[in-house]
Prior knowledge:
- Helices cover 0% and strands 58% of the residues.
- By secondary structure, it is mostly beta strands.
- A hairpin with a 6-residue loop joins strand 23 and strand 24.
- The termini are far apart.
Amino acid sequence: MATFTNQAAILYNNKKVTSNIVTGTxxxxxxxxxxxxxxxxxxxxxxxxxxxxxxxxxxxxxGLTVTDDLGTYTSGGLTLTPLTYEAGTITYFVNGALRxxxxxxxxxxxxxxxxxxxxxxxxxxxxxxxxxxxxxPEAGSEITxxxxxTGQAITGVTASATIPAxxxxxxxxxxxxxxAEVTGGAPLTYTFDIANTGSAPEAAAVLSDTFxxxxxxxxxxxxxxxxTTADYTYGETxxxxxxxxxxxTIPAxxxxxxxxxGVWTVTPGTATVTVxxxx
Length: 279
């Protein structure tokens, strides 16, 4: 809603007298609401947005342009865009009815043209964008995404949606054995390297495996520290092995933004579990 002011003056006998200042408001006939359907973001995983446009006027609004800034922000003198439009995802509804997809031009901004909103009616645009290498993965970070609607006496109606970075662990695991060739009765060690690329540590992960052939007289370590039998279960006849929740912790990843490029890099948190025994 825009405001305006006005003041009058009267001139007489080489004098000037001014009136009081009056203030008025101009109500836009178009209202916009932008919503992030996804509750949080993770780099590389699409975020769905919905833009709702409502026309309270008595005439149709046609030929409107919607410009989405894709979360553009500045950092260290750089202008960075943390969202990339996912091509082909736009869906356009007018008064609840599906319409042909509008024209989209995507780059550092997303421009959607030739949008119509009927008198007393509504239009909804739904589309997805993917957090890219300029989206901070750190816990507590967020992306604020703003759209501006212009055209046909619409001077610039805006709407924003803010979405936080996911605060959770993201684990991968790699298994290796040593030595690769053994004889019966010889020692064998399985090594489990666990990496966490997420922004939160994981202290309740459970590692499980079934050793075939079955290992005897096993010893277990986590990051070089011996685990006790309270930290795991093992079936010496079945080879079934499982750690208890809380037996070890995988720390959160660390993150850094390159001051020259603005690109975020991830250094995973790691934990290593070994199980040694004899065949």
